[in-house]
Amino acid sequence: MNQRIFNFSSGPAVMPLPVLERAREEMLAIDGAGMSVMEMSHRSARFGEILENSEAGLRSLLAVPANYQILFIQGGASLQFSMVPMNLLAKGSSADYLITGAWGEKAIREAKLFGQVKEIYSSAAVRFSRVPQQDEVSLSADAAYVHYTSNETIDGVEFPYDLDGGGIPVVCDASSNILSKPIDINKFALIYAGAQKNIGPSGVAVVIIRDDLLERIPDGLATMFDYRSFAGNDSMPNTPNTWAIYLIGLVCDWLMEQGGLAGIAETNRRKAKVLYDAIDSSDGFYQGCADRNARSLMNVTFRLQNEDLENEFVSQSEAAGLDGLRGHRSVGGIRASIYNAFPEEGVHRLIDFMDGFAGKNV
Ligand code: PMP
After folding, report:
1. Is the pTM of this model over 0.90?
2. Rounded to an integer, what distance in angstroms lies between the CA atom of residue 311 and that of residue 293?
3. Is the beta carbon of 153 within 6 A of some atom in ligand 1?
């Protein structure tokens, strides 16, 4: 029955098998409720418990302090590209953006629709292969906030540190590395992430926002674009994505069983290390795209000598049960997304495949 293959998709991405198994068990009727979660009123006491459990799971894993709200909002991470400036970029103020890849570019493009923004760093000239050191980041003294992307999913670069805003509120798109390692939430004013990589299925974004930011929001925003509508109504100004929220709770339970974020971080480091080692020891047959000190532990990007060889690599890997290795269409190359739920065994299978492929094609 288990015909699962190794799924390197960048998102929606592989879910932990025990989570899927438990969801299957509870699909028709969750303990005592006599119905599936997806059939249940979002206003019911039972769903209230489910939502609370998911929020508590995230709060505990990420050690989110009491002065931060955890919100579940539809519209994906992309809606946050707009909601952040709508809520936090007051008239006459300006926000700083660090651009280290394709998603940061989208975020700033969207923010420009709502107010003044400054691109204070960009690695576009080096094809998004690096991220700045903290001391290269020079923030505007009067910035309303600074926005950065902690892991660029397409380019495969990740900040190895949490950005210090030095008093300027830090807003972070952590869509593709949230829950992959412990972070210090106190360094952030707002963190957002589409769920479909490390948190759960697509269709919901998690937003973690510090209370004082809610007080800065201008009046007059449409209800569904105003963070206060979610903060003041248990994330339910309207019908939320109940099924996704339920699954998030199961993913959190699974992560606790992996030793929490410290435990999963250790596994993630090990998985990424062996894969990068395989790239580095291939005598140039495989070439990593990112600078060594900016290498993503979640999305490992590399190239072969030419596109024909890359196409051959992808088709042969698919035949070998390794799915989703083609790089994003905008950049090409190969990308192995190895999020939390991606099994270590699959990384070793990929390395064996890479060794064999290089042996036949040098
Ligand atoms: N930011 C990052 C870093 C992403 O990887 C993605 C999606 N892959 C997005 C934003 C956009 O997310 P969504 O599709 O949920 O809008």
Report:
1. yes
2. 28
3. yes
